[in-house]
Amino acid sequence: MSPAIALAFLPLVVTLLVRYRHYFRLLVRMVLLRSLRDCLSGLRAEERAFSYVLTHALPGDPSHILNTLDHWSSHCEYLGHMGPVKGQILTRLVEEKTPACVLELGTHFGYSTLLLARALPPGGRLLTVERDPRMAAVAEKLIRLAGFDERTVELIVSSSEEVIPRLRTQYQLSRADLALLAHRPRCYLRDLQLLEAHALLPAGATVLADHVLFPGAPRFLQYAKNCGRYRCRLHHTGLPDFPAIKDGIAQLTYAGPG
């Protein structure tokens, strides 16, 4: 390419970099730097974060552990977790609904699991599902470090589509008063329909879904709005440390099979 042609494209490149600078920063922190650190350390970002938690957080104090993870993500290495703003929304909704049984699809490394467990009413139970064994191992240690035993928080290592049909018989979960979808947005619709098909959502149940705007779950949102079985509300937020990148949590209230 000649210098003249390159110079002709320079204004376009600069415009794109300015307009999408937040996405480029996210790409660098979430993909490029993380991949480099993974190769150099032999550990995943979440495993490095847990090592930091072990030396800086108070065992048995989930709030302090959550704050420590937020500090690590903001100042050391971006984790792509739910973060404090969404965390406040999630905590408020759980405390308002006081669900006896909560189902989380997508434990990741356990951040949102701690939020849910901390807000459970007395005697409440949380089942959380993670398909990645290595990520689940970090989450298991984090959950127990925070002081939650297996009677309160049970971690299932498997894929959501395999677990949902077995929740009633194998895990004695007959109903999910509140469900959090936080795994893969492209799986949200499939798993919501599985929960319906296996009669695991009682009338009045709350379904929360993270990342419905970024990276987005359009088919899930369209179904929830048009099927006639849900009242829908969208809580608008940004990504942690990237507030200009718009995201949101969908809140669905199940009216029943209709």
Automatic annotation (TrEMBL):
<keyword id="KW-0007">Acetylation</keyword>
<keyword id="KW-0808">Transferase</keyword>
<dbReference type="InterPro" id="IPR002935">
    <property type="entry name" value="SAM_O-MeTrfase"/>
</dbReference>
<keyword id="KW-0256">Endoplasmic reticulum</keyword>
<keyword id="KW-0531">Neurotransmitter degradation</keyword>
<keyword id="KW-1009">Hearing</keyword>
<protein>
    <recommendedName>
        <fullName>catechol O-methyltransferase</fullName>
        <ecNumber>2.1.1.6</ecNumber>
    </recommendedName>
</protein>
<comment type="similarity">
    <text>Belongs to the class I-like SAM-binding methyltransferase superfamily. Cation-dependent O-methyltransferase family.</text>
</comment>
<keyword id="KW-0812">Transmembrane</keyword>
<dbReference type="InterPro" id="IPR029063">
    <property type="entry name" value="SAM-dependent_MTases_sf"/>
</dbReference>
<keyword id="KW-0949">S-adenosyl-L-methionine</keyword>
<keyword id="KW-0128">Catecholamine metabolism</keyword>
<dbReference type="Pfam" id="PF01596">
    <property type="entry name" value="Methyltransf_3"/>
</dbReference>
<keyword id="KW-0472">Membrane</keyword>
<comment type="function">
    <text>Catalyzes the O-methylation, and thereby the inactivation, of catecholamine neurotransmitters and catechol hormones. Required for auditory function. Component of the cochlear hair cell's mechanotransduction (MET) machinery. Involved in the assembly of the asymmetric tip-link MET complex. Required for transportation of TMC1 and TMC2 proteins into the mechanically sensitive stereocilia of the hair cells. The function in MET is independent of the enzymatic activity.</text>
</comment>
<keyword id="KW-0489">Methyltransferase</keyword>
